[in-house]
Amino acid sequence: EGEKAVVWAVSFGDDANPTDMAFDGDQAWVALQNADSLVKISTKDGKVKKSIKTGKFAYEGETSPYVADIELDNGNLYVLMQRYTMDLSTWETTYPRGLLAVYDASNGDLIDTIQLKTKNPSSLAVVDGQVFVATHGVYNEASGTDADSKRGIEKVNVSKKKSELLISGEDLGGGVASMVVEDGIAYVSINLGYENYAAKQSLKKVDLSSKEITDVEGFTDMSGSMAIDDGLLYVGDRGASAVVTWNGKKKNTIKQPKGALPPYNIALF
Asked: I need a surface site. Which of 21, 105, 118, 243 has the fewest CB within 10 A?
């Protein structure tokens, strides 16, 4: 209990802003968004084993490429970069096309980079060696996204250094805020905007092979994260202020601890 529950802690410095982790046995890669670094640590004691600078991929005037997601697969570390720049006086944001970088997970050497077709990527998944990237695209005036071909789900051919828009935001109904994938089936949350400071989203089930898209009813705000395991989808439904599961037919709300705040992120172990 209390302080004794903490096995170890490690600091990466002020404003490092760790955004994602990818576990590899007794080690893990950590993406530091504001520190423009990828750091490999020991999960036994938190000691840093390797550090890679990512600043060279930053957009004009920025120091960080703003890593959104990292995934490990077959010895490769896939790193998804949003590469935006923001005018802090007006909050106006410029988004160039997103970038996917591939590193050797054993030594941190850069293998390749692939330019994405669309902007503001949010999530990536590796399925049987195939790489899929979900992109949100540029926000509209309602802080949502338009249903057009400027966003969606891309399929990346790493060997040929090419990416294609596999499923358009026109078919999905907007840009993808988050995505989880299992056995070739993706669940994506679509950003429709905000109302009274709450996110308005729709949940879609997507077959990445057949491109069939199915609406999943009853969810309105997946901004509390999603995770999937053995066909069971976990949704951090901030509209319900709870974690809600979906088995393909039925919803089940997991009882939250007394006084718990709305879910922000989900991790399964």
From this structure: 21
